[in-house]
Amino acid sequence: MPVITCIDDLKRIYARRVPRMFYDYAESGSWTEQTFRENTSDFSDIYLRQRVAVDMDGRSTASQMIGQDVSMPVALAPVGLTGMQHADGEIKAARAAEKFGVPFTLSTMSICSIEDVAENTDKPFWFQVYTLKDDDFMQRLFDRAKDAKCSAAMITVDLQVLGQRHKDLKNGLSAPPKLTAKSVANMATKVHWGLGMLGTKRRSFGNIVGHAKGVTDPSSLSTWTAEAFDPSLNWDRIREFRKMWDGPLIIKGIIDPRDAREALNVGADAIIVSNHGGRQLDGALSAIRALPAIMDAVGDKIEVHLDSGIRSGQDVLKALSLGAKGTYIGRSFVYGLGAMGEAGVTKALEIIHKELDVSMALCGRTDVKDLDRDILMVPKGFEGDWQD
């Protein structure tokens, strides 16, 4: 086993072990992938201010996200098809997060169902929902999450229409996936992955099949998926969803300060600055560039988190120092999961934690809750100087 020191090391192993179809699903953005790339590269435009001769003993990365204790302010983001990256992937990722003391968020489009994950974990997790047309299905989703003792719900608001991802179309990645001779041949070379998938009963969308009206098997899933998402979504509709869930609520997919202000009025406990990992509107601002303006607009009125582009503990440090109270990793934990299962997710969290802890110390800070812009050197015009 090679020495693993960073998230990129896990990514290289992941690329070897997981079928190309599912690797490309994770490692892609929409259209030209400009936003997908800049989500990560824009972090490097921000520099850290090193301090010396500061007492660095007694450091703490412990914090809270929406009032819940976390060992560091990093949650596992909702990622669809996680159970195709590794057999029982959502269960394994949830277990790793639970042991590490950080939140795990289950996607509606997961392979393992809400009930599967609840049955195989001891602590509450978070559940993410899309804004779908079917009120009955939505209410039952929230009710199932409540029955599973989920401690927060997350509504993703940036998927009214699906951004085009060229790689997925070329690979036949749909719901359910369309297998081609090329993709089957590639899967046959991934022996460890294949044995794992043969050994599990969880190979379809566990929250949909058998729960959504008319979806009794994978073959009826594609019709439902094509018709389920609601292009007429507006803020009044989101208020209706808020009434379906009486627990802590997070709204994911905010990238403009005007939408952040709208999100204040629907009773959410937190918003996530996110462009869906660059998978929706290509050419949109990266999440880290969008964060300062959103903090200026609503940061003193609602808890602000950041998702999209985090690949290191230094990225976490920069987001927190710009004002975010929490961050999310999606691809970073998926690389670990595909590379080594639950142990790989744990390794990804260990990497992020160590980078955060050491970098924070070298910036002269000992408590993650005390981070601010003083440890950063942010270039002028980082947010953009745009014409009206």
Task: Please provide a written account of the structure.
Keywords: Flavoprotein, FMN, Oxidoreductase. Pfam families: FMN_dh. Helices cover 41% and strands 11% of the residues. By secondary structure, it is of the alpha/beta class. It has a single domain, classed as Aldolase class I (TIM Barrel, Alpha-Beta Barrel). The strands form three sheets. The protein has an eight-stranded parallel beta sheet with strand order 4-11-10-9-8-7-6-5. Strand 6 (126-130), helix 7 and strand 7 form a beta-alpha-beta unit. It starts with 6 loop residues before the first helix and ends in an 11-residue tail after the last strand.
Any idea what the radius of gyration is? 20 Å
Q: Give start-end ranges of low-pLDDT stretches.
A: none
Distance between the termini: 54 Å
- CATH superfamily descriptor: Aldolase class I
Main beta-sheet strand count, sense and barrel state: 8 strands, parallel
Q: How many structural units, i.e. domains?
A: 1
The count of strands amounts to 12
Topology record:
Blueprint: H1 7-17, H2 20-26, H3 34-41, E1 47-48, E2 63-65, E3 68-70, E4 74-76, H4 82-85, H5 89-100, E5 105-106, H6 114-119, E6 126-130, H7 135-147, E7 152-156, H8 166-171, H9 181-188, H10 191-198, H11 221-228, H12 235-244, E8 249-254, H13 257-264, E9 270-273, H14 287-298, E10 303-306, H15 313-321, E11 326-329, H16 331-340, H17 342-362, E12 376-377
Parallel strand pairs: 4-11, 5-6, 6-7, 7-8, 8-9, 9-10, 10-11
Antiparallel strand pairs: 1-12, 2-3
Helix pairs in contact: 1-16, 5-17, 13-14, 15-17, 16-17
Protein name: Alpha-hydroxy-acid oxidizing protein
Cofactor: FMN
GO molecular function: FMN binding; oxidoreductase activity, acting on CH-OH group of donors
